[in-house]
Amino acid sequence: MSQRPIIPAALVALAATFAAPLSAEVVQTGETGFTTRDAVVVKGTPFDAWQALIAPAKWWNKAHTWSGDSANLYISPQANGCFCELLPLPDGAPEEVRRGSALHMSVVMVDPGKVLRMRGGLGPLQSEPADGVLTITLTGVDGGTRIVWEYVVGGPMRYEVPVIAKAVDGVMSQQLRGLAGVLGVAQPVPEEEPAEPTEPGPEAGDAPESGTAEPERPRVEDAFGDLDDGA
Q1: Torsions phi, psi of 152, nearest 5?
Q2: Nearest Cα to Cα of residue 105 among 161, 47, 172
Q3: Which positions ≥6 away from 102 have C-beta within 8 Å?
Q4: What is the Cα–Cα distance from 86 to 225, expressed in whole angstroms?
Q5: What are φ and ψ of residue 164, in 5° steps?
Q6: Residue 79 confidence (pLDDT)
Q7: How far apart are CA 225 and CA 80, in angstroms?
Q8: How many CB atoms lie within 10 A of CB 205?
Q9: What angle do CA 173, 178, 179 make, to 5 degrees?
């Protein structure tokens, strides 16, 4: 029998820090997918929010980078651009060796001041066949700009879906809180019409035959590290 991932105590503590004015929840789960949705109202215009959004080095939590330094992150805000990270050279590398890099997500839609959509598996999902689409929408409201941050993940993965969904939502909330910290938070988060249900991702395939051992699932806390390291 495979070991079930354990939700770390750090994740519980992290969730407690995301009270109003930031709204965050797992809005859908299925056998092979989930959707998280986070929202906040920030000060400034949609274009103010846009300029901050496309500069992740200023707000993305370094605990969720490969290099340990948010300054290495950048977004190329154009279709087929990337949300990428430069990696430091290993100690002792020859001068002719170039720096490594990591692709967090690929940019698929850019409408400045309105929508940024990117595709890819963030964090530990990068090593899984599952894929994700992150849609960030900006809407002008009284007192500022409403940012809605929706991440839809579907496809086969070695994690228990309800567990990884909660962990991912915690990390997504952490990043949105970092962005809101740069812009300043306006209160409260206005109510809006509920989104249409999102269909779960594609089926992962037939279950293993009887007597066949299922591969051990990764532990969520091992993949995400210390979630208490807030932005």
Answers
A1: -110, 120
A2: 172
A3: 66, 84, 85, 87
A4: 20
A5: -65, -35
A6: 97
A7: 30
A8: 8
A9: 100
Q: Do residues 150 and 37 make contact, with C-beta atoms less than 8 angstroms apart?
A: yes
Kind plus residue range of the DSSP H or E element containing 163 = helix 161-183
Reading the chain (231 residues) residue by residue, the pLDDT tens digits are: 343 333 333 333 333 333 335 778 999 999 999 999 999 999 999 999 999 999 999 999 999 999 999 999 999 999 999 999 999 988 888 988 988 899 999 999 999 999 999 999 998 899 999 999 999 999 999 989 999 999 999 999 999 999 999 999 999 999 999 999 999 998 655 555 544 544 444 443 444 344 444 445 544 444 444 444 443
Supply the Cα-derived Rg of the chain in whole angstroms: 18
Residues in the chain: 231
CA 23 to CA 218: how far, in whole Å? Answer: 28
Helices (H), 8-94: 9-16, 46-53
Contact 99, 90 (CB under 8 A): no
Q: Which of 141, 172, 161 is nearest to 32 (CA)?
A: 161
Tokens encoding 110: 């850019």
Q: Are 184 and 43 in contact (CB under 8 A)?
A: yes
| Residue that has been written with the tokens 């007192």 in this structure | 143
Listing DSSP states for 80-99 in one string gives: T-EEEEEEPPPTT--TTPPP
Contact indicator for 225, 167 with CB cutoff of 8 Å: no
